[in-house]
Amino acid sequence: MTDLFLTEFKQWSLLISIILMICMYIFTIIFWPTLLTKFGLKKYQGVQRVHVGEVPRIGGLISVVGIFLYWMMCTHGKAMPFLDALLISSIPLVLISIKEDFFHNTRASSRLLMMFLSCFLFFYLYDISFPQIEFPGLGPLINSSIFMSWLFFAFCVVVIINGNNLIDGANGLMPMSIIMQSLSLFFICFSSQDMTNMIRLMYILTPMIIFLIFNYPWGKVFMGDLGAYFFGFFISLLTIVIFGEHPELPTWSAVIILFYPAIELLFSLCRKIYEGKNPMQPDPNHLHLKMFYLLKQGGIKPRVSNGLVMPFVGLIWGMPFILVVWAYQSLTLTIITLFIMLIIYFGFYWALPRKKLIKTIDVP
Question: CA-to-CA distance for 190 and 359, rounded, in angstroms?
């Protein structure tokens, strides 16, 4: 299996796409101020902004272009049917997020519509086997109806897409989260001798590692909405595919793997509704932002504080890989693990002060 896996990646197409991605990152970092002025691109503003200066938010565009070039050059391989469906179905998502990255003027409802459209396109184009949901009452209803399956799993994908976008901002946080999710799935696939999905995971790991080199620790480039949306779309769909192809695995293990973006979004929505706020509007009270403001309050410079957020919340994004290895084959252990993760997350969250309690800090 290992020899076949290595043979799949001993291709000039992979090397060329990697070199091109690196060159595009270098070009963007050097010439971004000139491009910003020449094309009149709108500067990014928002309450979730924690970086200093104007940083290009096109890491996602570069990554998608790199994957697309590899797809164009590599016309064979067991993993290609999945990549075909992924790239075609992601077109609505890519278009709306490019518009948001460059002009910052798309409505939340428009983005949600494109997310669901991309999900339904993928389900239509790819011969997918959905996982069997292990939940009393709801599970049989979803499992027995293709319509309910499409709605439920599209909702799950949209949750991860938006949760992924919430954690994109602190340098290295979103790519490390996705790398840990990918490695967790990689371990499961390796244990199941599933070479095809191991190769598919490399389509995520390769651009993420390249991006991390330029993003961490000093944040020379960001993923932007396109990168956060696309890779959230990618990792969540691949998780569904892997657990659908391996019915022996408890599907709650997928929740362990995608825990961080999922809990960030769902908890944020519930918190804002409870506080009487618009759940669609951003705020500065997410876990990583609270950590950033706490570090900055301690007298650490904003740029350094930004770089420290990722390792300081490492327990949260690192938990999937740490715990799924122990629990993924047992439903009982999986449920216990989820309770442990919830306790750790909420304990961490409530131990950190909210921004409104830190009166001496302004968003840079």
Answer: 50
Tokens (6 digits) for 342: 């919830």
φ and ψ of 134, to 5 deg: -100, 75
For residues 230 and 249, the answer to whether their CB atoms sit within 8 Å is no
Angle at CA 126, nearest 5°, toward 124 and 132?
90
Q: Do 272 and 278 touch, CB atoms closer than 8 A?
A: yes
Q: Residue written as tokens 């970086």?
A: 51
- Side-chain-side CA neighbours of 320 within 13 Å: the count stands at 26
Question: Who's near 202: CB < 8 A, 6+ residues apart?
Answer: 9
Type of residue found at 239: T
- For residue range 195-236, what is the model confidence (pLDDT) as tens digits? 889 989 989 999 999 999 999 988 889 999 999 999 999 999
Tokens 């191991």: give the residue. Answer: 198
- Residue 61 neighbours by CB distance under 10 Å: 22
Mean pLDDT by 10 residues, the chain (364 residues): 55 82 92 66 51 74 92 72 93 93 85 96 94 85 91 96 90 94 94 90 93 90 93 97 92 93 93 86 84 84 87 91 86 91 92 61 36
The Cα 48–Cα 325 span in angstroms is: 33
Q: Which two tokens stand for residue 103?
A: 């002009």
Contact partners, residue 269, CB within 8 Å, separation at least 6 = 279
Written as six digits, the tokens of 190 are 């390796």
Query: d(Cα 339, Cα 349) in Å, to the nearest integer?
Result: 15
Residue in the block written with tokens 């840079």: 364
